UniProtKB/TrEMBL annotation:
Source organism superkingdom: Eukaryota
GO biological process, one term: mannosyl-inositol phosphorylceramide biosynthetic process
Homology family: Belongs to the glycosyltransferase 32 family.
Entry GO CC: membrane
Keyword Transmembrane helix: yes
TM helices/strands, residue ranges: 17-37, 228-251, 292-316
Cross-referenced PANTHER family: INOSITOL PHOSPHOCERAMIDE MANNOSYLTRANSFERASE 1, MANNOSYL PHOSPHORYLINOSITOL CERAMIDE SYNTHASE
Source lineage: Eukaryota, Fungi, Dikarya, Ascomycota, Pezizomycotina
Protein name, UniProt field: Glycosyltransferase family 32 protein
UniProt keyword annotations, A-Z: Membrane, Transferase, Transmembrane, Transmembrane helix
A GO MF term: mannosyltransferase activity
Length: 325
């Protein structure tokens, strides 16, 4: 009787010690990884917070006196008149990783359709050469990051935000065929189409020059640059893609002027026709929803979450063991 009581006491003491060690490891891991945990949380919670006050930033007839069907606007309208034009008349298309100019045969028509409906606008095609020069000149502090991206799509996405910030104007995927002038939208300092099920698409964005929100996106490129779970798709979406940009939108203090064209009418998921575009839905990287042919990257974050998981499991197991004594 006495002996077994003694034994039980000893093993209880050992359990308690292990419990405290587990708690300490857990707390230390959380402390060391607190920034990563915060960014992870913001990414995970997008679905919960995206729709908060959505009626204020989703473009509508009642709030903005805007016809989202565009039926009331002329196809040739390239200015927001009588409203002030906040977005400068500049088109940006990105053709990174295409040294031989192959985009011309494949996407020449859709690119030209957008140039054609905006006569007199500046039009830029960004290739490896001029884009690299642009980043080095305008964002020298981000050049190393930009060069170090694992996946070409990350470089394309980061470039969209940088171009939009430095020049303002309209950033367009090459597989978007323009059906009409974007003039009516130029009265808003930022516009992007709603994505399904949350957030917005970055294949089409318009913004004023040096827009504060776009500046916040650019600044946070460094913060979100991780090999998320070591998975290519997650890495692209969370460090530079739609999911990342939508998270920055959610955490802006006043989202009223960060306008979103309502889905599903304007969503560019798949091969669709919206009031302003025919989305040709390419299967190459030119389109955002393209299948990403990429390899598994570094596992640093995976290891981090593995340890958090082990510490948690240890903690819970010891707790339930203790309860039995
Ligand atoms: C189109 O314009 C007419 C007349 O200006 C207006 O009465 C109508 O409400 C508008 N429709 C939409 C959908 O904006
Ligand atoms: C948010 O911005 C809008 C438009 O600029 C403004 O009318 C509104 O008062 C702002 N809301 C707050 C809470 O500051
Ligand atoms: C959502 C988010 O993490 N936004 C951050 C962007 O970066 C600035 C600092 O550069 C942070 O203050 C924001 O919290």
């Amino acid at each position: 009787m006495q002996k077994s009581h003694l034994l039980r006491n000893q093993s209880g003491g050992r359990s308690r010690l292990t419990l405290w060690v587990a708690v300490a490891i857990l707390l230390l891991t959380f402390w060391l990884g607190r920034h990563l945990l915060y960014t992870t949380w913001t990414l995970a919670a997008l679905r919960v917070f995206w729709h908060e006050n959505a009626s204020q930033f989703i473009i509508s007839q009642s709030n903005d006196n805007f016809d989202v069907t565009f039926a009331n606007y002329s196809k040739a309208q390239v200015s927001a008149e009588p409203y002030q034009d906040l977005v400068p008349p500049i088109l940006h298309h990105i053709a990174l990783g295409d040294t031989e100019g192959r985009w011309k045969s494949r996407w020449g028509d859709s690119v030209q359709s957008c140039v054609d409906v905006h006569p007199g606008w500046e039009s830029h095609i960004w290739t490896d050469d001029n884009a690299s020069k642009f980043v080095a000149e305008k964002f020298p502090q981000l050049k190393e990051l930009w060069d170090s991206y694992h996946y070409p799509v990350e470089r394309i996405d980061a470039l969209r935000y940088m171009l939009l910030y430095a020049y303002g104007g309209v950033v367009l995927d090459m597989d978007l065929k323009c059906k009409r002038g974007l003039g009516p939208l130029r009265r808003f300092s930022f516009v992007a189409p709603e994505a399904h099920p949350t957030g917005f698409s970055i294949g089409f964005m318009m913004a004023s020059k040096e827009n504060a929100f776009v500046g916040d996106i650019v600044r946070n490129l460094t913060v979100y640059n991780k090999q998320w779970l070591g998975l290519p798709y997650a890495t692209v979406m969370f460090s530079t893609g739609c999911h990342f940009a939508s998270v920055i939108h959610v955490y802006e203090s006043n989202r009223t002027d960060l306008k979103i064209l309502p889905g599903p009418l304007h969503s560019l998921n798949g091969r669709v026709s919206t009031p302003i575009f025919d989305h040709l839905g390419s299967s190459s990287w030119h389109s955002y929803d393209a299948k990403l042919i990429v390899t598994i990257g570094s596992r640093v974050n995976l290891i981090f979450f593995f340890f958090v998981g082990v510490a948690l499991a240890l903690f819970l197991r010891k707790k339930s063991l203790l309860r039995r004594f």
